Structure to design on (316 residues):
């Protein structure tokens, strides 16, 4: 089995047709069919189902397609890394950052510091939620992520950075069952309020919902919101409340229009973690960005938060 056959096979599956793949690859259709037949002979499995409408991969074909993508990506990365050996790191590095977390405030500093040290690296920043990131990390669409830790996920590893208490954020004009000067609210009192939260796949939503249901109560969900500007407008018009870690609440809702109350009896907590793949090494550029990211996180934790009692980050 060689990488050329794998590349041909991936192109056929992506195209859904041997004819279309042959045209895209500038390879004669009979020759392309022979390459597939050679793969099937080598693996002793039928890989494609052929019909007048095109081709579809069999179960074995789907398995090969997934592994072929990983193999081809590693081969291409090896070529890039070898070619760039000895030169300054360069290329595209993708980072996902949870929008409702203290990590989102790091974005300007990440851009500035990476640009200063590695001007040939292009950063791609996006917002993503824990439930969908595992596939993005495993498939190589993302290099790393700073998110709410969702628990063990095969193919990725999490380094817990900080455990934060959750706080209620509500319009300052809202009448609450707490004293005007109070800075806390019970979870039972929170359960009486209509909340704006992310969709069910988000770890933050799961923590809040599980906490309320543990009190024998039902979550009063006003709506699912995953846009910070929209959430701000909704709370400013007092259509509901929301729940966030203190760091995110301070960063996003520090105006006089909002009240930030710590949730007690019981307290709710979430973990912010760094997520990286555990099945293949990062590119040289991604490794360089990861070092910068860890430095900035350590600095933030030292200056504002009490980090977990764990060993220092391993920069390897």
């Amino acid at each position: 089995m060689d990488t050329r056959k794998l590349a041909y096979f991936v192109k056929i599956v992506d195209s859904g047709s041997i004819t279309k793949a042959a045209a895209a690859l500038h390879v004669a259709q009979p020759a392309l069919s022979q390459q597939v037949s050679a793969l099937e002979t080598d693996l002793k499995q039928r890989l494609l189902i052929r019909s007048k409408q095109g081709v579809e991969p069999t179960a074995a074909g789907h398995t090969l397609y997934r592994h072929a993508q990983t193999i081809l990506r590693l081969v291409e990365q090896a070529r890039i890394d070898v070619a760039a050996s000895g030169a300054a790191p360069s290329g595209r590095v993708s980072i996902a950052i949870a929008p409702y977390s203290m990590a989102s405030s790091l974005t300007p500093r990440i851009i500035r510091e990476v640009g200063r040290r590695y001007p040939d690296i292009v950063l791609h920043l996006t917002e993503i939620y824990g439930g969908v990131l595992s596939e993005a990390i495993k498939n190589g669409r993302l290099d790393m992520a700073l998110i709410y830790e969702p628990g063990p996920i095969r193919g990725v590893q999490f380094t817990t950075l900080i455990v934060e208490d959750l706080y209620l954020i509500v319009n300052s004009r809202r009448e609450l069952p707490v004293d005007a000067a109070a800075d806390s609210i019970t979870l039972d009192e929170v359960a009486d309020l209509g909340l704006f939260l992310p969709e069910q796949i988000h770890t933050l939503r799961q923590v809040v919902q599980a906490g309320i249901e543990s009190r024998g109560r039902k979550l009063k969900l006003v709506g699912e919101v995953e846009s910070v500007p929209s959430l701000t407008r909704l709370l400013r018009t007092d259509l509901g409340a929301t729940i966030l870690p203190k760091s995110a609440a301070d960063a996003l809702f520090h105006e006089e229009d909002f009240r930030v109350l710590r949730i007690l009896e019981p307290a709710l907590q979430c973990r912010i973690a760094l997520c990286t793949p555990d099945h293949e090494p990062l590119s040289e550029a991604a490794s360089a960005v990861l070092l910068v990211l860890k430095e900035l996180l350590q600095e933030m934790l030292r200056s504002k938060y009490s980090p977990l009692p764990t060993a220092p980050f391993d920069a390897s």
Observations:
- The radius of gyration is 25 Å.
- The first strand starts at residue 48 and ends at 51.
- Residues 82 and 202 are 39 Å apart (CA to CA).
